Amino acid sequence: MANPSTEAAEIDPITALADGVFDHVPQERPTWPAIAKAMRGRCPCCGEGALFSGYLNLVKTCGSCGEDLSHARADDGPAYLTILVTAKILGTLMLWVYTAYQPSPWVMAGGFSLGAFLVALFLLPRFKGLIVGIQWAKRMHGF
Prior knowledge:
The model has no long low-confidence stretch (mean pLDDT about 90). The longest helix is centred in the C-terminal third of the chain and has 33 residues, at about 105-135. The chain has helices spanning about 15-20, 30-40, 75-100, 105-135. The chain is built from four helices and no strands.
């Protein structure tokens, strides 16, 4: 049996609510508006300032509202989502084009390689914005 004096004190949730222990819980932020703003390349907080300083480089702070965006950690999420969606779109389109028109292999390879490149370039910053918007709305990684 453990010594009660050495055990960590447990918090009774009923007493903690009455004492105001959980009053510091931050207010929830609206998720879908934050995602929509960030996917357009705007600050998820105000929707005015730019989210990116380059193609995929995030700004440290919003130029409009001053929100600290340096906490964002998108990592490999945008690349994974881009590959997933691009493959689904182009895989379905390849099957349809080949069955309907039966172009030569070189036309298929060249056309769909260019298509994959362009779709990936279009989707990558939007998916990065999506992940940053979710992180901001859910207060992840210090937001």
